User: What shape does this take?
Amino acid sequence: MKRVEQDKNSELRTIKRAPLIDLTLEELNSSIIIDGGTESLLERLEVNKVIANQGEYLDSNNLFPVTNELIYNYDFGDNWIIKITKYSDCEDLLGQNIVAEYELEEAKRIVLDKHKPVCINREGLSVLDDVGGLSGFADLLGLIYEGEDMEESSNALAWAKSLGWSSKKVSIKRMI
Assistant: This one.
C-alpha cells in the first residue's frame, strides 16, 4: 500500500499470505484498511474472544479465545506488571465474602450500560504512579509504616493518598 501511495503506477502485490493470528500488528496494520486504523481493533473484540476463563483449555484449532491471561505493563517508567485473568462466575468470591452483592450489581450495570468489562476483584496492592516501580513502592511503604521521622511519614502518606492510594480495598470504580 505504501508503494502504491508513493507511485500511482505501482501495482498491489501480495508479500505474505497468513492467517490473521500469525500476523504481527505491524503486518496487520499495513495490510488491512480499517477506518481509524487497526490500533483500536482489539478494543472492539468481546472479552470472551480475547481471554478464556481460568482453567479453560485453549484449542489450537480455534482462533478464540486467544489466551488464558493478559499481561499488562502499566506505566512503562515504573514497569508495573499486572496479570489479568478471568473467571466464569463469581460465586466463589461471594461465598468467601470477597465481593458483595451490591458490588456485583454495580459491575453488571457498568457492563450493560457502557459495554465495558469490569474488574471486581484483585490480588495484591494497587499500583501507584511516579513512585519508582516496585522498589520505590517498597521504600514508600517503609517510610509510611516504619519511618522514624513522623512528619516525613505523614507527608509521604498524604502524598500517596493524594494520588488515590489506600491500603484498604479499592473500589471497583477505581480499578484499571
In short: The radius of gyration is 22 Å. Residues 46-86 form one domain.
